[in-house]
Design brief:
five-stranded mixed sheet, Methyltransferase, Cobalt-precorrin-4 Transmethylase, Domain 2, Cobalt-precorrin-4 Transmethylase, domain 1, single chain, alpha/beta, elongated, 12 helices, five-stranded parallel sheet
């Protein structure tokens, strides 16, 4: 059995009760933290709190060499857990791993965790069914060019034309830095102010919402023009940015009341 378990958003306690039970019952526990990670806990915290040993796999250890995980799960009566931050099936990498397991006759199951996407709606008051396609904003060095990639611009513009909100995930670099160099100690997290500055070059006066540390005791939600958000400090990671589309009156009220949006940016003409 291979059980995919989402750890939730922040620390070792963000997991669901069902996920905690499955984790503690597992014979072996693997994890990856390159797609996202818990900024309120490290591997040692997870191991101590849940009384397990966690084997962390790098990107290539999941995408290119998943055999150790699959071999462990294929053993008779073995119960193997695979952990990720957020919800475990948001990344296509994990879907591929599950399909590989199924092809080998390994039973699989999924225990979901809270995601940044659901938190974005819950914390801002923006209605979840009014979000369009999401985008990920990479560091310039990560895509080999200056500024915002065309794909991100096209996604935001297409959503705005349809009146839909855009969730912009911000780049995380763990284990690699500029020019792709490998560095196990390197950690870099794009901040909401950095992202707002990049996006303000094309949408200076556009309303945006910065969300920092969703799921933590110190969450921050602030709405303003991109140019204004670019001047603020939102503190420790993880951050995300939302570009709202057309606002329902309840959403406008929520952005004023929950995120401090200036009235002139959300009030109807």
């Amino acid at each position: 059995m291979l059980t995919f378990i989402g750890l939730g958003l922040y620390d070792e306690r963000s997991i669901t009760v069902e996920g905690q039970a499955a984790l503690r019952d597992a014979d072996r526990v693997f994890a990856e933290f390159y797609t996202s990670r818990l900024v309120g806990a490290d591997v040692a915290d997870l191991e101590e709190y849940h009384d397990v040993d966690v084997e962390v796999r790098p990107r290539e250890g999941v995408e290119q060499d998943p055999e150790p995980i699959l071999d462990a799960a294929e053993e008779a009566d073995a119960d193997v857990a695979f952990l990720t931050a957020g919800d475990t099936m948001i990344s296509t990498t994990h879907t591929d791993l599950r399909l590989r397991a199924e092809e080998r006759g390994i039973d699989t199951r999924v225990i979901h965790g809270v995601t940044a996407q659901s938190a974005a709606s819950s914390l801002t008051g923006l209605q979840n069914y009014r979000f369009g396609k999401a985008a990920t904003l990479p560091f310039p060095y990560a895509h080999g060019a200056e500024g915002v990639p065309d794909s991100v611009i096209e996604t935001i513009e297409a959503n705005r034309e349809r009146g839909l909100h855009t969730l912009v995930y911000l780049d995380i670099k763990v284990g690699s830095g500029p020019r792709g160099r490998r560095d196990a100690d390197h950690e870099e997290y794009m901040t909401a102010d950095y992202a707002a500055e990049m996006l303000a070059e094309g949408w200076d006066d556009v309303l945006a919402v910065a969300v920092a540390r969703a799921g933590s005791p110190e969450v921050v939600v602030e709405a303003d023009r991109l140019s204004a958000l670019a001047t603020r400090d939102f503190g420790d990671p993880l951050h995300m940015l939302i570009i709202p589309g057309d606002l329902h009156h309840v959403e406008a009220d929520a952005l004023r009341g929950l995120a401090g949006a200036p009235a002139e940016l959300v009030d109807e003409d």
